[in-house]
Amino acid sequence: MTTAYDVLEVENDRSYRGCKKIDRLLVSLKSSSSLTNPFATAPTVLAGDASGNVHAFSTALPTTSSTDSLSLHFQQQFKKFSHDCAHVLDSWGVFATIADAKLVLAPLPLSKDLATTPIDETKGAIALSAHESAGALVCLTKQQSLHVYDWSVKNGKLLARSTHDVPDKPSALQSVLCISSDVAVLIYKRKTTLFHLDTGRSLELPVGCREPVLQAVRIPGPLPTQDDFFVVWRTHGVLLRFDRAQHSVVTVGQPVQWAPSAGPPRAVLGHHPFLLVAYAEHIDVVLASLVVQSLSIKSGHLLVSLLAHAQATSMTSPPSVLVATGPASFVALRMAPLTEQLQSHLAAERYAEAITLCRACPIECHVPDTELQSIHLRLAMQLFAQRAFNTAMESFLESKVAVEQVLALFPTELLPRSRHRLEFTELAAAPAALSGDELSAALHGLVQYLQAYRALPRTGLAKVQFAQVASVVDTVLLKALVLTQDPSLETFCSATSNAADIGETEVFLRAHARWPALLAFYKAQALHRKGLELLEELQTMDPKPHKDPQAQMVAYLKTLGDEPLVCEFSRPLLQASPALGLSIFTHRLVPPTEPDVDPALVVAHLKSIEVTAPAADDDLPLEDGRALAIAYLTQIVYANARPVAAALHDELVYLLLDAIAHQVAQLHKKKREAQSLIVFHTRVRMQKGRLGALRRQLLAFLQSPLSQHHPERLLSRTPVEMIEERAVLLANMGRHEEVLRLYLHEIKDAALAEDYCNDVYASKVGDASIYTLFLQTYMRPPTTKAFRLGPLSSIGLAFVGKFMLRHAATIDVATALELLPPATEASALSAYLQRVVELKLEARRNAQVQAQLLKIENLHVRAALHAAQQESVDIGAQAACSVCGRKLERGAFLFDKDEGTLMHYACQPAP
Question: Which spans of this chain does the record mark as coiled coil (predicted)?
Fold first, then answer.
């Protein structure tokens, strides 16, 4: 095992008997000799006993090669000055402790004439913690308060920053640990939290680290102003770090497991780059969760750094640690040079420790990148031989070894058939062949390695080199995913960046019946015909796959814009299941930026379908291609998702008319006496059966605001018996008289005709003469009728009178009276005439009122003009613009009446 520390004996001052048992051990580099000689490196050891006394000893730092023991020489004693939370802050030049229940500061080095500075607002202090590099100190009092101070280098004293109430139950708070200028760790009896010293907010530890802790110690972090902290439980310890970017606590490295026979440690000390863990019988030296040395030192219960790694860089002495092994006995640990430790690790083939040492101390253990990659490669081969495949693959990735060399460690069957094993440069001393459970575990590691290898950022030459092996990498990765039954197989196959060999992939996935993955691979590689043929093949399998292949076929075709393929593979679906097949075209999932199938081509395709299993729909069954085309056009027009050509709107009407004609022909076949058969009902809503459903669909489409048909083209194709449909077509053409004639004399629905007039007038398609046209059409029926209309009955006159009364404001009186029969009694029109007179009088009164208002307005305007003309403004030779300040010598200018100022016309503010 590598020697990280050498053990040196420490001789105590036998002439001094005042220190019986040490409870607190501190070291200060500010000795009395350093005041006269700044280069002196003799530290002062401050030992606190159970009585609260501080005993000062002087010693010397160990040298790199000396094997002589160290000596402690007693200097002086300070009574009632020690505390469990006492701190030596050399850069501040103070010794911080708690005395008489107050925070007390004393200058360093401690002298006989000790001048202390108590902080009165910390009365009742029970704990303190300071971060020397960050310049922050935290003091906890019995009054449930947390006092935060900043150290002022300029003034040489503490400055109060803030005071917080301790969250949760303060009686359960055991200690506090300041790890940066604004974050402290609060250790309660049953939990541990992080506390923000500025905002007062608490932050929980990660899940799995929230059990009650035995102790927590500060560990030097990557930044001088922020430390990590090591938390100790009964079975293990974890290094934690506060991540400022994510505002959370994260674990660093792997947990450190305690030796089962030793139990939890007595003391833990972070001595960069190592972690010293003191047990009852020995002290372990831990490097990133790896025990690199075990020192046979018994009863070690206090550890203190004589010289830290950061301090040793500016001194000739190596980093060292002082260990209290008894009531008043010590040993010293001297760190061996890191370069020697690195060479020792490499010679002993302890590559993991060597790499960890290089990462922790990149300056002292600097090695070229090529050599570091070589170490990673040797570690990877070592781990692979030990069957630690996951960690081995991580080291392979760090070594940047050619991927072909890693693949050569696996069975040949994983490689593509086009690439033979001999083409790869195999690693020296390759492990034995893999099989069984070892092969399965190795494949899981290989999957992680290849996925990470594919995700590496590449530019320039590296990108070109990866393109040369991408097919091999992706093919092997796909096979490994299949063999390990990895759930990400389908996701990998559906990636467009997948460069796996198509033939190898197809054969391998078929051999293992991974149909969803094969379908996703076909789709990603744009092999749509193969994908659709696979779905057809799955439909004939027995038993069928878990997912319905027919539904998958529909979903596939919805996303496909290849018109020939969509038409070819949708035909069987439309024939066997018309509704399901029709959804391929009515619910398209092609992105708007990509070309989709042409609706005109879809209509032609649907019209050619011969349905073998019509849908069970009584009204409008999908029984043939025409019904499919009607359903398709209806849905895409009403959906209004994409523009539809006007010609297809006309095509929908033609298809509906053809379907109606077909239904009429069917009705004629049922009854031989076609001459006596009345097929079309005057009112569409009264038509029954399938013919009625078709007519209602046609009428709704003709009346829809989304319809873009050409009524002049469709009118000649519409049978004269379809009166209501023809009326809508005529209305769309603006032929109001013919529409009213159909409503009034063919359909015989005056209310419908009146509603039509209201719609025309409200939509401003026609003017008020539409109501006069209504009367004219109603009062003068066509002369071609078989009978002539005689004098209007009392019922007819009553309707005319009410109609004229309702629209008295819009009907021309003279024209209306001319249309009435000469024998019409005045009593029938009394209400209408009275209403006309009221409207005339109302219009006259409105005109009179408007005229008077205009006169009044004219008088006001004249009065304002006269008042304005009476006002005057004196403009002298020195008059200047209130905006630009220049004189009003030339050009147009104006007077602001509200402000009482003059300005150039061009300087006036914008309205």
Answer: none
pLDDT at 483: 93
Nearest 5°: the CA angle 30, 35, 39 is: 80
pLDDT at residue 422, as a whole number: 44
Shared domain for 836 and 785, answered yes or no, is: yes
Q: What residue type is 11 in one-letter code? A: E
Residues 149 and 158: beta-carbon distance below 8 Å: yes
If you ran DSSP here, which 8-state letter would residue 210 be given?
Answer: -
Judge whether 155 lies within some domain. Answer: no
* CA–CA dist 347, 338 (Å, integer): 14
How many CB atoms are closer than 10 A to CB 357? 25
What predicted TM-score, i.e. pTM, was given to this entire model?
0.69
Does residue 108 sit within a domain?
no
Among 828, 843, 858, the domain boundary falls at: 843
Please give the pLDDT value at position 37: 52
Specify whether the CB–CB gap between 396 and 449 falls below 8 A: yes
Residue 638 near residue 625 (C-beta atoms within 8 A): no
In this structure, are residues 480 and 499 in contact, taking their beta carbons and an 8 Å threshold?
no
The Cα–Cα gap between 51 and 18 comes to: 11
Domain-embedded: residue 809: yes
Quote the crossing angle between the two packed helices 689-703 and 625-639, to the nearest 10°.
30
Instruction: Kindly report, residue by residue over 839-890, the tens digit of the pLDDT.
Output: 888 888 988 899 999 999 999 999 988 887 888 888 888 888 988 888 887 7
Spacing of C-alpha 291 from chain mean position: 42
**pLDDT tens for each residue of 457-474:** 887 777 777 887 888 899
Q: Which domain holds residue 904?
A: 876-910
Same domain, 838 and 899: no
Look at residue 420 and tell me whether its pLDDT is greater than 80: no
Q: What is the 3-state secondary structure (H, E, C) of 88-124?
A: EECCCCEEEEEECCEEEEEECCCCCCCCCEEEHHHCC
Query: Same domain for 836 and 889?
Result: no
Residue 393 has pLDDT above 80, yes or no: yes
Residues 6+ away with beta carbon under 8 Å from 592 = none
The sign of the CA dihedral 243, 247, 249, 251 is: negative
Round to whole Å and give the CA distance between 265 and 258. Answer: 8
| Per-residue model confidence (pLDDT) at position 147 | 95
Cis amide bond preceding 273, omega within 30:
yes
pLDDT at residue 242 above 90? yes
Q: Please check whether residue 4 lies inside any domain of the structure.
A: no
Alpha-carbon distance 285 to 283, whole Å?
7
Tell me how far apart the alpha carbons of residues 511 and 490 are, in angstroms, rounded to a whole number.
Answer: 16
Span 30-52, pLDDT tens digits: 876 555 554 456 789 999 998 88
Q: Cα dist. 784→241, 307, 745, 746 in Å?
A: 101, 124, 12, 12
Q: Which residues pair with 24 in a beta bridge?
A: 48
Q: Which residue spans within 745-904 are E strands per DSSP?
A: 893-896, 901-904
The residue from 784, 819, 843 where one domain ends is: 843
Task: Return the amino acid letter for 40.
Answer: A
Residue 673 pLDDT: 52
Phi-psi region of 208 (alpha: psi -120 to 50; beta: other; left: phi over 0): left
**Average confidence score pLDDT of the chain:** 86
User: CA 541 → CA 393, 523, 536, 659, 746, distances in Å?
Assistant: 41, 21, 9, 39, 62
**Residue 672 confidence (pLDDT):** 55
Q: What are the residues whose beta carbons fall under 8 Å from the beta carbon of 899, sequence distance 6 or more? A: 882
Of the pLDDT bands very low, low, confident and very high (cuts 50, 70, 90), residue 676 is very low
Q: Are residues 838 and 778 in the same domain?
A: yes
pLDDT tens digits, one per residue of 741-794: 888 888 887 888 888 888 887 877 667 778 778 887 877 776 654 434 444 444
Number of domains in the chain: 2
What does the alpha-carbon distance between residue 870 and residue 661 come to, in Å, rounded to a whole number?
Answer: 87
